[in-house]
Write a structure and sequence with these properties.
Chain lengths: 515, 136
């Protein structure tokens, strides 16, 4: 505002009083206006200060190598208080980077630089180095150039990037070296395939990416069915699905593979992560195993039936054998019983023939005893056991016949106590043993055959003869001692014992006590 | 005719002697022997007879054992009761034998043969009986 001095000179008091009045009006107005302006500026300042203070970005203004303004985000990032930060200034920059950044600041102070973005290394209060993403631009404060810089911590980002790279490498290694074929599939396109899958299908990864994935499924058309199944299952349960598919390799080989499909997000879209492995071999082995198992089962069944059959046959054979043995024994028994008939009868008749002429009285005696012998045989032919007294009566008659035949060559001494006469014995066994003794030994008047018959303390009937064996024998057709054994076997009784020492033959035949 | 009886059963021997005398009372039974040992001893100290009736089964051994010790130069008629194998052997070797009990007619027929025919020894190789005997 400009005041005319001439007016003031000529109309002094009026002029002043007028001005005073005018000023009284203007000053409050001006004062008011200035306050309003000031308030407006303050408001604006507060707004910016609030903005600066509250922004997450670190902000600092450097002028003449000193911080003239900074926000708390900057202080917090470096771990200092506001005062410490302001005081440290350029010393906040790491020594190795200080010269470079000081030079940038110097140039900016000269107004020579355009806005720049560069990484800058700062020192944290703990001594740790922080790599910050620095944005610097030129501002004017109090008529002088200054560096306005905003900073972002890159350390974490770099570490994260490094970790990400490592993790990526790790996963890439894992994926590529996996024994499983791994793929990412979106709709019908293969977006990624690892080496294993490529090798499995005999395609390169690029070929696979350019193929619709349905081309590797076998038989063609299977895919739609499969996808329907997968989608239906997905609706019920969003988790992993495992299915077996047939795959067709580039060179036309059909492989059976097992797939594990998991839903993933790939490049922001829903896709499927597929892990697969060739189960052709496994299936083949399983099939072989199954076939082998079936064969084994069949073999086992056959074996079982054969065993059963053989066991049945064996049982039958055994039964038959037992029957045959029993029949055989029975027939031997019969033969043995009959054996007394032809030979003995024959010999006796020979004697009788002679006696009739030579000594008729003795012939009568002889034929009487012969009758006794045969009555006994007739009466006992079906008995397995006979009372000792009956047997001894028969034996008396028999020995009588022998004594007539072998005059003076045979001594038979029977010594059985009365109280044992009810015991039981196999019929004709004693007679057979006497006959045996006669058959096998020399008997003459000078050296007679002596047979002792008695019961021992073990309840065996002993038939003992002195041994004077004939040097040669005619071939024996008889059945002899074996028969007595078999007859006792038939009876299921104690076995008879036959022993021969230097001087005697001892036959011990079990007695059965008759209760 | 001098006849030797080798038979271990007394009544059988006496019966045979009676039957021989029945055939011809002038025949002489020079001895009745009961064992192989007695027979061997007899042959060593006596002239051979004209005919021998020889039982197979003697009281000490089988009569074939005699042939191992002495050579017999007269005919032999074997007598046997029930030795089937020996009987078959005699038949095969055309050796005369009589089954016991000896019937007069059968005995007569055998003696007839030796009375009418010239004296011809029965040649016995004792080894040919090996098949029908066993060493006990």
């Amino acid at each position: 505002m400009k005041v005319k001095e001439t007016d003031n000179l000529y109309n002094g008091s009026t002029f002043f009083s007028n001005w005073k009045k005018k000023l009284e009006i203007i000053i409050p107005f001006l004062k008011n206006n200035r306050e309003r302006l000031h308030a407006s500026v303050m408001e604006s300042r507060n707004l910016y200060k609030t903005l600066i203070d509250n922004t997450l970005e670190s902000i600092a203004v450097f002028q003449n190598g000193e911080i003239i303004l900074c926000n708390m985000a900057f202080c917090d990032m470096l771990g200092y208080s506001m005062d410490e930060t302001m005081k440290l200034g350029l010393k906040l920059i790491a020594p190795e980077d200080r010269q470079r950044m000081t030079e940038i600041h110097r140039k900016r102070m000269l107004g020579e630089l355009e806005p720049m973005n560069y990484p800058g290394i700062f020192l944290h209060k703990t001594g740790a180095k922080l790599t910050l993403d620095v944005n610097s631009s030129t501002v004017k404060v109090n008529g002088q150039y200054a560096s306005f810089i905003t900073m972002r911590d890159m350390t974490t980002r770099l570490a994260m990037e490094q970790a990400l790279r490592e993790s990526e490498l790790k996963y890439k290694t894992l994926v590529e070296n996996s024994l499983e074929g791994i793929a990412i599939i979106k709709d019908i396109k293969i977006l990624f395939a690892n080496n294993t899958l490529c090798n499995m299908l005999n395609y390169t990864a690029e070929e696979l990416y350019s193929l619709p994935s349905i081309d590797v499924l076998y038989p063609p058309g299977e895919f739609e069915k499969t996808r329907t199944i997968i989608e239906q299952r997905r609706k019920l349960d969003a988790s992993t699905i495992t299915e077996a598919f047939m795959l067709l390799t580039k060179d036309g080989v059909i492989k059976e593979c097992e797939f594990t499909l998991s839903p993933i997000e790939f490049r922001g879209e829903d896709a499927s992560l597929v892990a697969s492995h060739d189960i052709t071999e496994r299936k083949k082995n399983e099939e072989e195993l199954r076939l082998t198992k079936e064969k084994l089962q069949k073999l086992n069944l056959e074996l079982e039936s054969k065993v059963t059959e053989t066991a049945g046959k064996l049982t039958e054979a055994n039964t038959q054998l037992i029957r045959v043995q029993k029949e055989n024994l029975q027939s031997q028994f019969d033969v043995l019983k009959q054996q007394v008939n032809p030979h003995f009868l024959f010999n006796s008749l020979n004697v009788l023939t002679a006696l009739i002429k030579l000594d008729p009285n003795l012939a009568v005696n002889f034929s009487g005893n012969l009758s006794k012998v045969y009555r006994y045989v007739l009466e006992n032919k079906d008995n397995e056991l006979v009372e000792l007294k009956t047997e001894l009566q028969f034996l008396d008659a028999y020995i009588m016949l022998l004594n007539i035949r072998f005059v003076g060559k045979l001594n038979v001494n029977i010594n059985i106590p009365e109280n044992r006469l009810n015991d039981l014995i196999i019929p004709l066994a004693m007679q057979l043993l006497i006959e045996n003794a006669i058959k096998h030994n020399v008997m003459s008047k000078s050296v007679p055959l002596t047979i002792d018959i008695f019961i021992d303390q073990d309840n065996f009937m002993n038939i003992v003869n002195n041994l004077n064996e004939r040097p040669t024998q005619l071939v024996s057709t008889g059945i002899g001692l074996k028969n007595i054994e078999n007859r006792y076997l038939l009876l299921n009784n104690t076995k008879p014992v036959f022993e021969k020492n230097a001087t005697h033959f001892i036959a011990r035949v079990p007695l059965v006590i008759n209760d | 005719m001098k006849i030797l009886i080798i038979e271990d059963e007394m009544f059988a021997a006496r019966m045979l002697e009676n039957m021989i005398l029945e055939y011809n009372p002038r025949f002489e039974v020079v001895a009745t022997l009961e064992s192989v040992q007695d027979s061997i001893a007899w042959f060593k100290s006596n002239d051979q007879p004209d005919l021998i009736f020889l039982d197979i089964h003697l009281e000490d051994d089988i009569s074939f054992a005699i042939f191992r010790e002495v050579t017999i130069s007269c005919p032999i008629v074997f007598t046997t009761a029930t030795d089937e194998i020996a009987t078959r052997a005699f038949q095969v070797m055309k050796i005369d034998f009589l089954h016991k009990p000896i019937m007069q007619a059968e005995l007569n027929a055998v003696i007839d043969k030796y009375v009418k025919l010239p004296k011809k020894p029965t040649v016995i190789n004792p080894d040919i009986f090996n098949d029908i005997i066993t060493n006990s």
